[in-house]
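task queued by scheduler; priority normal; single chain, no ligands, no partner chains; default sampling; output format set to structure tokens
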Amino acid sequence: MSILMTLVIALKALNRNKMRTILTMLGMIIGVGAVITMVALGRGAQTTIEDQVKAAGTNMININAGNFSSGGVRQGQGNSTTLTAEDAASLRELPGVQYVAAGVNSRSQVIAGNQNWSTSINGTDIDFPLIRSWPTKYGAFFTQQDVNSAAKVAVLGTVVSNTLFGEDVDPVGQIIRIRNQPFKVIGVMSSKGTGAMGNDQDDVIFAPYTTVQKKLQGITHIQNITVSATDANTAPVAAEIEQQLRLRHKLIGNDPNDFMVRTLEEMASVRTETTKTMTTLLATIAGVSLIVGGIGIMNIMLVSVTERTREIGLRLAIGARGKDVLLQFLVEAIVLSLLGGLLGIGMGYALSGAAERFLSWPTSIPPEAIAMAFGFAAITGVFFGFYPAMKASRLDPIEALRFE
């Protein structure tokens, strides 16, 4: 008997008991729908967590000025003057490096009208908001032209903006004075909150590093470089950066580094563990849901074999082979699983959309989740349908015909 004929017979058999067929598929529909929904919610939550951790700088590598010794006296880390803007530019060509920002830090009293505030002045580059995933609330970050011309422009943190100009006031276009020099406010960063070290990340002013170098500090070197790697595994990139800077600074053999390279390994570890936990949870839910649906199919197929014992005996008596009966019941189980799987995928999309729309939960359904759910549905049909099908194919025709 051909596969097409077997499929037609299977569909007719399932159509005879519509309600039972629907209820049998319901277990698979709920199972697959639950898998799709949980994957969507889990992936959405995971993406949100990763974005938040990334914003904190998981992929970030910090290069700071190192020790400086004079007359045998070590001045300590951060006193070396060998880091330059050219060093930062050279790192852009390294594999695994995504963004680079040279930095010069200062602290000063800032004045706006009759208000004043003491805060950090961070001289940085145009890649900084990309490295930190930090958008502006008002205005915009400074441009490459501002960096090249050492323009007196400033982007305020929300604490500084609120203190100098008031809550929820757009200060773009206003003038502030830093060390008696006028700076034009061109933007305000969105609120970032407290950092991992307990510092207030919003109590800061950003300006082009060239401006801080020339107009505020009077130096030609830079104090730090911030690098964003393309991957959370920053160790290989950090090693490449160290080698590159040693070559540029002509350090050989056992010469100590005149810079420090630091990575945020702990934050990367947190993200990795979070991802593993989420993956394990979803895999467990998927397994339990689909097994429950498969057991339902197996149960109904066993009932179907019992109910159709005389039909099976008749087919065997008129020449049907055991493998024909086996294939028929196996196809019925697979059809139940696949139809339930398709409807479950639709249910999963509907529930995910409802969660995102009405509960404001972020969701994301990756294509591999659809393939996984549908594949498991087919495998479940084969696995749980095989025993009832095998039982049907091994029935004795004489005993089956006499079955009441």
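post-processing summary
- Confidence is low (pLDDT under 50) at residues 68-76.
- The longest strand covers residues 97-112.
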